[in-house]
């Protein structure tokens, strides 16, 4: 079903190129920019990966490799990223830590994998920056095996009227600076992509960060 839908959707080439350029620009300082947030995010990442068993696993938007310490035993990980600069950082971390990892430069909106290639797919703080998040999630559903798992750790737009409005107002500036949208309704996007939601857990008290567990619709 996902493949049929994708045939009629055009990737925004300009937006995708801009996203790649932004992350290439900040790849070398990305960990520094996020060091404060990462103090909390480590526990969230660990919780996510504890739910992932062994097998063929796709990590989308691997970035600088922040998830590497939490990979499950018996997992064969393929990590992709739109940014070659980010992949360079991930490779350095993998080599330093002695982690065997298949790294590829690839766009989640157009995955170069056959249907049903993976037992699970994981993304952490990625779909805030994918130009077409629904298309990207449809691609995850396509490449994950029937009965497989899709797990997303994402920050989302707050439902609070004032806070949500403020996030909408400053979002264009944040996107221009770091490439990430802070007002994405990612749970709704997952539903629109046709994913079957199994659980949505608030990781932060205000609901800003959610752990979304889903499976393909096939």
Quick tags:
Rossmann fold, seven-stranded mixed β-sheet, disordered N terminus, 218 residues, alpha/beta, 41% helix
Protein model, in words:
The protein has one domain (2-215): 3-Layer(aba) Sandwich (Rossmann fold), CATH 3.40.50. It is 41% helix and 23% strand. Helix 6 (133-143) links the parallel strand 4 (118-124) and strand 5 (144-155). The protein is an alpha/beta fold and 218 residues long. Mean pLDDT is 91; it is low at 1-7. The chain has a seven-stranded mixed sheet, sandwiched between helices.
Chart the SSEs and their pairings.
Blueprint: H1 2-6, H2 13-26, H3 30-33, H4 35-50, E1 55-60, E2 75-81, H5 84-97, E3 102-105, E4 118-124, H6 133-143, E5 144-155, H7 161-178, H8 186-192, E6 196-202, E7 209-215
Parallel strand pairs: 1-2, 1-4, 2-3, 4-5
Antiparallel strand pairs: 5-7, 6-7
Task: Explain briefly what this protein structure is.
It is built from eight helices and seven strands. The chain has 218 residues and is α/β, with parallel strands linked by helices.
Number of individual domains: 1
Name the helicity range: 40-55%
Structural class computed from helices and strand pairing? alpha/beta
The coarse silhouette is globular
Sheet-strand content, in percent, reads 15-25%
Q: Give the strand order of the largest sheet, numbering strands 1, 2, ... along the chain.
A: 3-2-1-4-5-7-6
Number of helices: 8
- Low-pLDDT stretches are 1-7
What's the gyration radius in Å?
A: 16 Å
Order of helices and strands: HHHHEEHEEHEHHEE
What is the CATH superfamily label? Vaccinia Virus protein VP39
CATH level-3 fold name: Rossmann fold
Give the class-level CATH name: Alpha Beta
The major sheet is characterized as: 7 strands, mixed
Known CATH architecture: 3-Layer(aba) Sandwich
